[in-house]
Specification:
- The structure is a single chain.
- The protein is of the alpha/beta class.
- The protein has one domain: Alpha-Beta Barrel (TIM Barrel), CATH 3.20.20.
- The chain has 13 helices and 18 strands.
- The strands form five sheets. An eight-stranded parallel barrel has the order 4-5-6-7-9-10-11-12, surrounded by seven helices.
- Strand 11, helix 8 and strand 12 form a beta-alpha-beta unit.
- Helix 5 runs parallel beside helix 7.
- The radius of gyration is 21 Å and the shape is globular.
Length: 398
């Protein structure tokens, strides 16, 4: 039996009777089991989106950037330290079995490590994640002990700090080491994968092939339409209290609203942020219009840098990459599953975030959801036709 799969353009949300004023809606959300974000926006771990400068800008807006790994370990560690020095939290991408890289980035101050794999539901990744978590726990224990010693010396005995159980990013200055580094696995799209990773993941990242610069579905014939993928993973994650990050396929704030209403706690954006002033690369002017370059990590151009080729390597035995990328090169076939191009220049990160958050709050007001957690409870999706989609966009104008 063939199952129906839906994506954002296939549905709309019905408005509900509501007393919620959009201005009063809260967009604070869960990033992972022990971390929260002031806004539900993350940036993709692309080398044309997430570098240190961009990460600082997004972090100051209340979101989190995931630093790309298409560089040496030394370069990635340097980026982490630069962002942490600026007083904001940051995530970093690592290969599916790069335990030592993950530990080094955690030591440098990364608040979250993102397993960066096109298809994470594969042998060996769970055991690698268990080792990462063991090492993170040890690091957190050492750092926490040092922090508490310093804090408690300056406090009366009854007010000595206790072990923190959660940290919010974006509302107050970032404090390194307050919680154990969070470990986020991706990408997955099925209930089976969610069940298998539930014991080791602090959050799930969902999406195979929905991104604007991803050709995985065309090259391989494999994927799950993004709205259905989110709902499938959420159906398992909800019972385990594991947050879900919707990664890819988002073109508008309306798509973000639909992803959150489907049960995601946050979304990861690539093309919408690639056009920002702070994203890497120069502004290009073509026929009077401003653009910035953007490419998928599975594109030929990105793969040629060799540092993240294991994300799209055809092999039965994935090995960690070395600092120069050689580990994944020898004896492996690298399949191009992405493209490169340009996106419209959109202004500063702050400008983009303001528009997106405004759209999210508008959607929350229409469906009567005061918080992100309320959105799935209030959501009533309706499937629409192609004519309904056309009607939803501006039309009949000269």
């Amino acid at each position: 039996m063939i199952r129906l799969g839906l994506t954002f353009d296939d549905v709309l949300l019905e408005p509900r009777k509501t007393a919620v004023n959009r201005r009063d809606a809260s967009v604070e959300t869960r990033l992972s089991k022990k971390a929260r974000l002031a806004i539900p926006l993350l940036s993709a771990a692309s080398d044309t989106v997430s570098d240190a400068r961009f990460a600082i800008a997004l972090g100051k807006c209340g979101g989190m950037a995931v630093l790309h790994r298409n560089c040496s370990l030394e370069e990635q560690v340097k980026m982490v330290k630069e962002v942490v020095k600026a007083g904001v939290a940051v995530g970093a991408g690592v290969g599916p079995k790069d335990v030592e890289r993950a530990v080094a980035l955690s030591e440098a101050g990364a608040s979250a490590i993102f397993i960066d794999c096109a298809h994470a539901h594969a042998p060996g990744i769970i055991s690698a994640m268990k080792e990462m978590k063991r090492r993170f726990k040890s690091l957190a224990s050492q750092t926490r002990h040092s922090l508490l010693q310093r804090e408690n010396k300056s406090l009366p005995p009854k007010t000595a700090s206790a072990r923190p159980t959660e940290q919010s990013f974006g509302r107050a200055p970032f404090m390194k080491g307050r919680i154990q580094t969070q470990l986020i696995v991706g990408n997955i799209v099925t209930k089976e994968a969610a069940r298998d990773f539930a014991s080791v993941a602090d959050a799930f990242k969902v999406g195979i092939g929905p991104g604007s610069i991803c050709t995985t579905r065309i090259v391989s014939g494999v994927g799950v339409p993004q709205l259905t993928a989110i709902m499938d993973v959420v159906s398992v994650a909800k019972a385990k209290k594991i947050p879900v990050i919707a990664d890819g396929g988002i073109r508008t704030s309306g798509d973000i609203v639909k992803a959150l209403a489907a049960g995601a706690s946050s979304v990861m954006l690539g093309s919408l942020f690639a056009g920002s002033e702070e994203a890497p690369g120069e502004v290009i002017t073509v026929e009077g219009k401003k653009y910035k370059s953007y490419r998928g990590m599975g594109s030929k151009e990105a793969l040629e840098k060799r540092h993240a080729v294991d994300r799209y390597t055809v092999t039965d035995n994935i090995q960690p990459t070395t600092n120069n990328g050689e580990g994944a090169q020898k004896g492996k076939m690298h399949v191009v599953e992405g493209v490169a191009g340009k996106v419209l220049y959109r202004g500063t990160v702050a400008d983009i975030v303001e528009q997106l958050v405004g759209g999210i709050k508008s959607g929350m007001g229409y469906i009567g959801a005061k918080t992100i957690e309320d959105m799935p409870k209030q959501a009533r999706f309706i499937q629409i036709t192609g004519a309904g989609l056309s009607e939803s966009h501006p039309h009949s104008l000269e």
